Amino acid sequence: MLAFLRRLANAFELGVCWSCGYSQVAAGSLCPYCEEALPRWYPRCCQHLSDIEPYLSEGQKRCRYWYGALRWEPQVQQLMALFKFRNKAELAPLLANQLAAHLRLCYQHQALPDCVVAVPMTQQAWRKRGFHQTALLAQHLSVTLELPYIVGGLRKIRSVPMQHMASQSSRWENSRRSQLALHDYSGCTVAVVDDVLSTGATMMAAADALYKKGAKAVDAWAVVYNQHD
Ligand SMILES: [Zn+2]
Question: Distance from the CA of 37 to the center of ligand 1, in angstroms?
Fold first, then answer.
């Protein structure tokens, strides 16, 4: 009977650790061992992203802070693959909580931004995936950190070719002017939420759009920061 119930729980992914499959955990969470083992970044700004300087155009403002919570290592890659490519939207709270814990440490000596927006996706990508993964993350973060979430605060106006196929300079070229801010952000410090931060090109496109609508500062927040060595 117990084995049957466990199989049933596994079939519906109730009480199964997302990382190791250990079944004695609350639904939608990691077991204590996997939680402990998650590869985390030290809570500080991703300084290396200063190498975006060569790609900034004249007068272009950069993001104020760049924060990423988890390292791009196999355990995290597995979770992100489930979330993004196997449509496990239920992972959003777990991933957002990792980022929220990281951000609480990053902002312990200063005020949090005024509002949160999500990196936009194209209508086509949204239809294909069935959910808006960065919007889910941003919604959970806004509740956890008690910040307003601006629904549809950014819109994708041009699709960008597959980023991993492109060289770094063409990634920047492809991303520029790919996003549009739909609200007035005058005087606001805005946090932009993404799932994976890699070159920073997507975040800078978001920042560009937000600065054009009056944002005072833009902070980049990502669940995962994938550092390129
Ligand atoms: Zn586990």
Answer: 9
CATH number for the domain spanning 119: value is: 3.40.50.2020
Considering its fold, how many domains does the chain have in total? 2
Distance CA 180, CA 213 (A): 9
Distance from residue 228's CA to the centre of ligand 1 (Å) = 27
Ligand 1 mean position, distance from CA 33 (Å): 6
If asked whether residues 120 and 182 sit together in one domain, one would say yes
Nearest C-alpha neighbor of 41 from the set 71, 76, 72: 71
Q: How far is the CA of 120 from the centre of ligand 1 (A)?
A: 31
Q: Which residue's structure tokens are 């060569």?
A: 54
pLDDT at site 227: 82
> The pTM is what?
0.88
Give per-10-residue mean pLDDT for the chain (229 aa). 60 76 81 94 77 75 92 95 91 96 96 97 85 95 97 85 64 80 95 92 92 96 86
State which residues form the domain around 130.
Answer: 38-225
CB–CB of 189/211 below 8 Å?
A: no
